[in-house]
Structures are given as C-alpha cells and as structure tokens.
Amino acid sequence: MAIFFYSIFTLSLIASAIACDRCLHQTKAVLFTNASALSYGACGYGSSATSFYNGHLAAAVPSIFKFGSGCGACFQVRCMDGKLCSKAGTEVIVTDLNNKNTQTELVLSSRALMAMANKGMEQNILKLGATNVEYKRVPCNYNGKNLGVRVEESSHKIGQYLAIKFLYQGGQTEIVAVDVAKVGSTSWSFLHRKSGAIWDTSRVPAGALQFRMVVTSGYDRKTIWAKTVLPADWNVGVVYDSGVQIDDIAEEVPCNYNGKNLGVRVEESSHKVGQYLAIKFLYQGGQTEIVAVDVAKVGSTSWSFLHRKSGAIWDTSRVPAGALQFRMVVTSGYDRKTIWAKTVLPADWNVGVVYDSGVQIDDIAEEGCGRCD
C-alpha cells in the first residue's frame, strides 16, 4: 500500500509539471503517408486506432506525447489557408510519437489532412503534404461509450501477468496511475506503464478484477474507481466495458495579481534618439496570451506594430515621439480580443522603469473552437 501511494504521489507531481495546455498553438502539419504506422505506433492501439475519430490520427511531439500519458488526447486542428481549407477544421487523436520530424508538432493521417480541406480540394492538400495549422487540445467524446479495457495478448493467468490498454478515454484527461485488486478486496497492486497506453503487472490476483485510475486534467486530479471490469474468466484480445467514463475538462488557474494592472517595463536597450523601443509586459492577469502589439502617439491613429523580440519582450525601431498608447491582441483559447491601453508611457519615458498600463487582462480560456478570422 505504501508503495502504491508513493507511486501515485510521484506520478501526480510529474503530471502537474507537464499538465495539459489549453492554449492555441500554431505549427505546420505534415502528412504521414503510412497510415498503419500511425495505428501501430508508440501508443500501441493497433487495429483499434482506425475506429477512433474516423481514422483522424496524429503522431505528436514528446511534449504532447508525455511518455505515453498523452496517448488518446484529442486536438482540434484547423488549416490556416482559407482558399484550401474550411474554417471548421477537424478533430484528431494522438496514437503515435513524432520524434523524427522536427519541422512540425503534428504528423497527420491522410484522412485527417483531407478532413480540413474545402470540398473538392482534398487531393490538393494531399499533394502538398503539409499545411500551416492552428491547434488546441479539446475533450474527447465517444457518444456515451464507456472507457474500454483491452486485455493484451501477452497476458496469462498462470504467470499472474496482466497487460491492458485503455480505449475510448473521454474528457480532457490523462491517466497517470493505475492499480488493480480482486473484486471485494482492499489489497491493491499497482500497474506500471509498459509503453504508450499499455499498463502491466506481474502480480495480478485471481478472480474478477476491479481497477482504480488516477487521472489529471490540467492541475486537477481525481481517482476513478471501476468496481467490476474483468470477469474471473477474462480472455486476451477482448475489450471489456469498465462501467465508467472520464469526462473531466482541463482546469488551469488564471493569473491573479490582486488588483495590480498590467505593467509595461521599458528595457535598457531602448533609446528615443534612435526611435528604438523595447518593452516587456509584467503582471499579466487572466488566462491569456498576448499575440500582437501596436504602438501610437497618444491621440494619433497612426499605429506601428511591434515584433516579439524574445519571450515577453516586444520591440520596434519606429517608435513615435511623445506620450505613447498601446493596443494588445490577446487570445484566450480560440477567443481573441483587443485591449486598448490609452495612456501608458509619458513623453519623457525612461529605461528600467515599469509603467502602469491602466488596464488588466482578466479573460479566461474558453473551450471549444470558434471560427477562424
């Protein structure tokens, strides 16, 4: 028992460190020409994968794959070429690890790539083999189907060895720990993640089996108890109904600076004579990302855009003289809005000083997919 709780505690800490990210991302999606390789990839779903989301499969980079806990995660993906693709996009499920193609975060099956195309443009997108996309994690939905537990062919009762994989995992969660016990018993044994979605133990008890899973959705954790899953006469290759489903949605904590406004710090590299300004934003509230910044002289409608120099630092070599106002485009999930800070820097601004923007960002990330601009 002590070992089991230590295992859960440790895995939970790992999960919180790599908790799911609900932010909007951009990358280049690339075609995976070998569909069977995606099915029989690192997650180990095998032939079951083709039934997931109509075969809209994806291989994901290690930061999404998360040593296997990202297997089965669902993402909304939308092509950014309005002529080639529809605004609706498609949903894909992670079935494999992409650790070879460093040019992209997602490698998609042909079905997934074609599903993003406008009617009649499916072959065009296939010929290109790659397209710029934006993507975000979304809850998986299997229309009322419970979490499935498949007994792998390597399992054998005599040797007390059991290997299982979870199928049809709903919500926006990751299974980070699993243990098993005989139905009616309180003597639990923990399973190891063998690889991908497969968990195993060499200490499986005889009889009908129950399972407990620790799942994490963002920073929230909970235990799911499936009280009767495998019968005493369980067989390999069979998918058993767990009787439960996971429908939790990722939770993240918005930043809260207790009434402090968004701060704008003038970096030391700035100089008025050279019309160069470098700023960084501090105390950014809510659950948002600043994705674009403009500057203009107070009272003017002649705006100049800033470039993201690095991290939270934005700069321009065309800063106007006088007091300055800023406009920031922020994104919370798929929702975007413009924040206007009407008077931020005085005409005699100085480097190294943090100025009060007079505004704060308190938006919370919204689930679901809106339409592209």
From TrEMBL:
Residues 1-19 form the signal peptide. GO terms for cellular component: extracellular region; plant-type cell wall; plasmodesma. Transmembrane segments: none annotated. CDD domains: DPBB_EXLA_N. One of its GO terms (biological process) is anatomical structure morphogenesis. Residues 160-242, 275-357 form the Expansin-like CBD domain. It holds the Pfam family Expansin_C. Keywords: Signal. It comes from the Eukaryota. Residues 40-145 form the Expansin-like EG45 domain. Belongs to the expansin family. This is Expansin-like A3. It comes from Artemisia annua (Sweet wormwood).
